[in-house]
């Protein structure tokens, strides 16, 4: 019965009401029905859905037993890549990102979502792309950012040679089998990583993940 109630709630979120109806509000973000509808099959996830979901992951990470997670928003990397550290140094005002275990950087490449993950415990920067493209230059850009952020905020020099940068290969992570699931892949890569779990889902899970995300965003709670 619970599952049926959830299903009917998800269907109602897609079907009834006006596009501008507000269905959820948190993390200084407002999610409308129009935003939620990007989670319909083959919909293309927008910034609001991506950032809201990252907010849910950060919120969960405050609980006992989870690694401490910091997530940049989806506009961070494009700003960083066009302006360097000085253009984004105010973004971490009052925050020491180095006090966290994992930093998530969702990246919007014109018409594709990817994810960069910094693991401060392991000193690794990994790039996750569900279309299998390499992001070595993106890893280097973020390492340079971390060096400058560390120097500026903590007066500590990072030793670049101690860091491992790696673009995940197609045999290491699942790959999308259509042109629209990249955003869901990014959210689920981030979900599994922020629980220190191996990434074991497949493209077949995407329709289920989309519906589950609708419920989670409306209820501001990860299942």
From TrEMBL:
GO molecular-function terms, A-Z: deSUMOylase activity
InterPro entries in the record: Papain-like_cys_pep_sf, Peptidase_C48_C
Protein name: SENP2 protease
Lineage top rank: taxon: Eukaryota
GO biological process terms held by the UniProt record: protein desumoylation; proteolysis; regulation of macromolecule metabolic process; regulation of primary metabolic process
One Gene Ontology term, aspect cellular component: nucleus
Gene giving rise to this polypeptide: Senp2
Keywords of the record: Hydrolase, Protease, Thiol protease
Record's keyword annotation contains Transmembrane helix: no
PROSITE patterns in alphabetical order: ULP_PROTEASE
């Amino acid at each position: 019965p619970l599952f049926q109630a959830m299903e009917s709630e998800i269907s109602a979120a897609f079907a009834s009401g006006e596009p501008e109806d507000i269905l959820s509000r948190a993390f200084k973000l407002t999610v409308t029905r129009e935003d939620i509808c990007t989670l319909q099959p083959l919909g293309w996830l927008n910034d609001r859905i991506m950032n809201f979901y990252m907010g849910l992951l950060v919120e969960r990470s405050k609980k006992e037993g989870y690694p401490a997670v910091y997530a940049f928003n989806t506009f961070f990397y494009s700003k960083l890549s066009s302006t360097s550290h000085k253009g984004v140094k105010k973004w971490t005002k009052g925050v020491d990102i180095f006090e966290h275990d994992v930093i998530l950087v969702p990246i919007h490449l014109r018409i594709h979502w990817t994810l960069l993950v910094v693991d401060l415990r392991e000193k690794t920067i990994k790039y996750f792309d569900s279309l299998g493209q390499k992001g070595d230059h993106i890893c280097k850009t973020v390492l340079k950012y971390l060096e400058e952020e560390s120097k500026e905020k903590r007066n500590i020099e990072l030793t670049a040679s101690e860091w491992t940068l790696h673009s995940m290969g197609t045999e290491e992570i699942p790959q999308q089998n259509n042109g629209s699931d990249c955003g869901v892949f990014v959210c689920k890569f981030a979900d599994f990583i922020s629980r220190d779990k191996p990434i074991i889902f497949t493209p077949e899970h995407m329709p289920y993940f989309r519906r589950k995300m609708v419920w989670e965003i409306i209820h501001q709670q990860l299942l």
